[in-house]
């Protein structure tokens, strides 16, 4: 299984970059996790858009769905150019009825509802979910294939249930949007020390930090995580291939 960061920022992207999103590949199957601002432009550095096989959306904040419309337009344009393709499945929860409905578009994309109790098979992946603590309903997710797993916290404050959900995962991709001085002052997000604590308590093998703040020096967040978690940890690097 290969994991490629497509974007790493929270809220909105820095110039020429994208919000937090990841491409997960195995046996020629390509799954995009979240599709916020700048993601579609960045994604094309790694695969043609028509090679995308599935999309999974954690929640419906703009920094996770802003480019869904552009993705849908790319497919309708290909259709008009005589290159039709089967509808692209976009997995997302249906607790937000209005936004879930927007995942389906002119038979080019089709919304597939997910629940936190689901264990789905998306291509070669077994995918399970866990509710997070965020101002809107949001789902963490775990991708498992051939005995290897990647767990993604999505957007969340500290939540005890995530410890067991991430237990012994090979790669934990954790949000880390807060500096230590902002811990507990911004709802729905974790600081580096909390991401490190989650990695340590869950016994994960590697920690990757994402959904980073646009201000300050994010290496401070990495240092805070590494002060707690003694295993391999780094800030996600756009375009780097992480083999799991």
Automatic annotation (TrEMBL):
Keywords: Zinc. It comes from the Bacteria. Residues 18-211 form the Metallo-beta-lactamase domain. SUPFAM superfamilies: Metallo-hydrolase/oxidoreductase. This is MBL fold metallo-hydrolase.
């Amino acid at each position: 299984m290969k994991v490629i960061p497509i974007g790493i920022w929270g809220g909105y992207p820095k110039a020429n970059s994208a919000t937090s999103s990841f491409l997960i590949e195995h046996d020629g199957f390509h799954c995009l996790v979240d599709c916020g601002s700048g993601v579609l432009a960045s994604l094309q550095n790694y695969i043609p858009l028509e090679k995308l096989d599935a999309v999974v959306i954690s929640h419906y904040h703009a920094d996770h769905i802003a480019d869904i419309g552009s993705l849908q337009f790319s497919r309708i344009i290909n259709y008009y150019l005589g290159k039709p393709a089967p509808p692209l499945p976009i997995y997302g929860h249906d607790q937000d009825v209005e936004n879930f409905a927007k995942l389906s578009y002119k038979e080019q994309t089709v919304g597939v509802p997910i629940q936190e109790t689901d264990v789905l098979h998306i291509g070669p992946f077994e995918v399970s979910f866990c509710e997070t603590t965020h101002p809107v309903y949001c789902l963490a997710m775990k991708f498992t294939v051939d005995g290897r797993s990647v767990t993604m916290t999505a957007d969340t404050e500290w939540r005890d249930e995530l410890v067991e959900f991430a237990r012994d995962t090979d790669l934990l991709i954790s949000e880390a949007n807060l500096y230590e001085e902002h811990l507990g002052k911004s709802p729905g997000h974790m600081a580096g020390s909390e991401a490190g604590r989650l990695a340590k308590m869950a016994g994960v093998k590697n920690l990757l930090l994402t959904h980073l703040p646009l201000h300050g020096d994010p290496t401070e967040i990495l240092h805070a995580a590494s002060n707690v978690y003694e295993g391999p940890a780094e800030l996600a690097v756009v375009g780097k291939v992480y083999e799991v």
